Every structure is written in structure tokens, then in C-alpha cells.
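Can anyone check this?
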Amino acid sequence: MTRRTLPALILGLTVAATMSAGAVSSGAVAAPSGGVRATSSAAAQGHPSAPPEIVALRDVDPTIVHEMRYTTSHNFVGERIDDYRAPLCLLTRPAAEALSRAQDVLRQQGLTLKVYDCYRPQGAVDHFVRWAEDLDDEQMKSEFYPRVEKSRLFEDGYIAAKSGHSRASTVDLTIQPLDAPPGPTPHSPQPGGSCFGPVADRVPDASLDMGTAFDCFDVLSHTANPVVTGEARANRDLLVGVLGDEGFVNLPEEWWHFTHKPELFPTTFFDFPVSRASLTAR
């Protein structure tokens, strides 16, 4: 993996971007939140739907493990996130098919991909923003951002008003053994152990050690951070390598964050819910 110089302040849980006027794809209208809702007869009746280019990953490759964190309270907010109505990974078809090819490579090594988040509605991003603005709510600080002041989440780039996930070609994921038992999904508001502590002290996860847990707001989450060595470094390199071979580009500030290039919707921020109905209503 080629190591790059990491920006000092851009730590990116979401990637800020601007959507130029007229950049909305054909057959879509702007949502009140600034996202985009695909139009159809169902959408016109109040049921926003996804465009046909967006599919459920399970329909493309049912062998990839799903642990969709934002449909549960085990996330940095501490509650289920708005518009995550089902534990589905929705992606553009090219991104989903590329993940399936990467899965074929890993399965030969007794490993499997596990996805934490895929398409993210603009309404969910808005939920993150409201949470970040509430400086009194720090119930999940001990696990997800123990060394970061919540007042700095916007300035340091952990939270932004737009996310590349809303374009449906970005995925947060890791690797775990094929034979790993399902890991527990804690829901305690004060989990024991920080996201960058020793593996044995972190909240249980069946995935390979990547040096930090998923969604860890810390510089140790930077993919090429030289402090991360040994097994964790090898695991990060494996993830970057196998996905890079299929056209995925890693966000340097988050070892788990990858975008499939070229994006089908590079300037469109969708806002339909994460649900099977968003696919069947179109």
C-alpha cells in the first residue's frame, strides 16, 4: 500500500462536498434537507424510492456479512439513526458487484467481508449533525471519541453536512474469518473499553484486528498511521489491497471507508430510506 501524507485536521466520518446547481441526476428532485429523492409514482405518493442502478448487496452476494450499526443503538450517537429502517446494505450495482469479486478473493483465504454501513440517506446525515450540535450528549464518548472534544467534531472534520455515503458508491467495512461466530452487539450507553484500546478491552467484534474499532474518532484510525504495526498493519494492507484491485479508493483518515470509482452519481446526495421498500417502490 502506498502511504500518503495525512492531512492534519481532516479526519472525516463524513466527507463534506458541495452539489452544484443542475447537478441532480435526471429523474430526481431536491429534498427539503438538501438531499435528493428519486422520483416515481410511489415517490409522488410520499414513498421515496431508489433509482434502478441501486441494489441490495445481499441480492448480489448473500455471502458478505452484514452488521449494519446504524440500525442499532451501538454507534457513536447511541440510538438508531433516522431513515435506517432495515439492516440492508444498498449500493450502486457496480460497487456491489466489485465487492462480490473482492469477496471471492477473500473466501479463498478463509475470510469474508463484513459491511457496517453503505448508502446513507441525507436524513441520517442530518441526524448526525443534530447530535454533534448537542454538546451535552456524550453518552458514547468513552467508546467512540475518548480523546476528542465534542465541540471540535465539525472543525476537525469528523462530522459534516454532506456525506459521500449518500451517493451510494461508498461502503464502511472490515474483514473477519469465515467461521467467526456472530459477535454480540452491545447497546449499553457506556460501553467498557475505548475504540483504540487493546483488542481484549474493546467492545467485542468478530472482525480482524485493524488497530482500532469501526467509527473510532481518533488519529489511529488513519489508514497509514505509522503507530499501527504488526498484525493490525497487515490486516489494513490486506483490506486496502483486495478492495483496491476492484476499483475502491480508501479515505486516508478512515481505514474502513472505501468509495468505488468511477461513481455513478458523483454529485447526487440521495435521501430515500434504507429499506427494501425503497427498491420495490420504484
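Reply from J.R.: I decoded it. Residues 93-107 form the longest helix (15 residues).
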